[in-house]
């Protein structure tokens, strides 16, 4: 199953749960990094791409720094997938990886 198909399925379940996905809303994309410098460099770059970024130290087995990149968009499978792929590619430059997306402020 492709990433686009996975996101379409997730959004379908959210929609079936009674959530209206037609209006634009803030979508949050989480990324994990091994060190603070990498997390902050990624955060700076995503801000230049029009995302809001929050860096937070977390206690996890892998990746001790979480960067949440947030952007207002219509949550369609195409929009979410495009953002997710763009951010994941950038995270890899800094040794990080994507850790999912969602709506922290529904």
UniProtKB/TrEMBL annotation:
It comes from the Bacteria. Pfam families: RraB. SUPFAM superfamilies: Hypothetical protein VC0424. Residues 5-102 form the Regulator of ribonuclease activity B domain. This is Regulator of RNase E activity RraB. It comes from Sphingomonas aerophila. The lineage of its organism: Bacteria, Pseudomonadati, Pseudomonadota, Alphaproteobacteria, Sphingomonadales.
